[in-house]
Amino acid sequence: MRPLRKLISQSADIRTFGFGLIWSTLGTVVLRLTPMITTILISHWFGIESIGKFAVTYGTLVSASLLATSGVSLMATRNIAAYAGTDPATAGRLAGMAVLLVGASGTALAVAIYMFADDIATRVLKQPELGFYLRVIAPIIVVSALNNVLSAVLRGLQEFRTTARLDMIMGLLMIISVPTGLYFHGLTGGFVALGLGYLAGSLIAAPAMMRGLGRRGIRFTFRGALSQWPMITRYAIPALLASILYEPVNWVCTTIIVNKPDGLEQVGLYFIAMQLETLLLFAPQIVVQVLIPMLSTGFGERDRRRVRNILAMGIGTNITIAIGFVVVMMLFGNWFLLLFKLDPARDWPVFMIVVFAAAVIAGALPLGQVPVSSGHMWTGLTITGGWAATFIIGTWLLQDHGALGIVAARTIAWLIALVAYVVFAAVLIPRLPQEKVPLDPDAKNTDNRSAIWERNS
């Protein structure tokens, strides 16, 4: 035990990873409970068809808000982590640019969905009654997107404790308000309460972000923010394209299923299955949130040993978690189905495939951050494109099997992506120097630092 304690006390990376994992877990547990509690209540109060309505509308909200933020948020987390300690001025402009771009893109998407809500519901979803709910969630896209990017800046600063506290506050607000809204005003009340929760989260997160930047001596500013545009072309644009492929593809696949005669029921079953996946993957995804800034620092220093150690911690942690939740679901999975008033004899195959897929995803998640953290965004985009194409084509071919078909197609897509990530990491990491390579002290600005990275690569 003494050698282990000595190793932990001497390793900054292990301490950062451990404390970040603990705090992020506390926050995410509370935040992730809201959709699951909401789904349980809808299944008992309104039935599985209403779950389908909620799933399609909520999926549109999540896809739109992540589409508005994913590219910029990844850029902010990765580059603020890389520059916070060496170039505070650049880090402050990056934070300003991230908030500015997400505000603009979120507003544009919200206006578009509000204006074309009836057309989307009637012509695309073939469910005209969903047009009203799409208009209700349109303004929520803006505050949800802002909340995401503020959290991304805090993760880049490795302010895991602050991020956890914010998640816990917002999660508790939503756990109280969303069921209340559902009870008194049905799905409309639930969505309005969800929007108020995101708004409260943004109002609390903004000053927390400013304090986090201040502790690092970083001045948040919009002035000169667009001078960091090369970061957009190098990181945010490929990440945005990957988001366009990744986030809406779930919406596209559910649209394929919802057009079937019993489409709303099958989408409802799929959405419940995704709640199980969310429950199983909440810890592996927290591991990834902690890994991104740490890997970004390791790749920025071009330190092969550090990158391997960080990646090993992430993969080992996720594999351990995956083994645990597979065992738990094998023993207690029937109780989960009964919680949502499902028939275990009929629906068990869908959920067993989801459990297997979650184990695959848990292993793929840390490796999936290697292209992001190393700056090889276009490679990451290519892998995501293959995942999206496989998922959509598989769902189309298996659409007659409803929820079973879509979860099978998703699992196949993740297996192929996992192989691609393993191959890429196996090729890239051995090319790094064995020890840390210091940055050129004369590199004062973003362009010079980028040139050093490209030259060393």
From TrEMBL:
The keyword Glycoprotein does not apply. It is found in: Cell membrane. The chain crosses the membrane at residues 21-48, 54-76, 97-117, 132-154, 166-185, 191-214, 235-258, 278-299, 311-336, 348-367, 379-398, 404-429. Keywords: Cell membrane, Membrane, Transmembrane, Transmembrane helix. It is a multi-pass membrane protein. InterPro entries: Poly_Biosynth_Transport (IPR050833), Polysacc_synth (IPR002797). The keyword Transcription regulation does not apply. Its main location: membrane. This is O-antigen/teichoic acid export membrane protein.
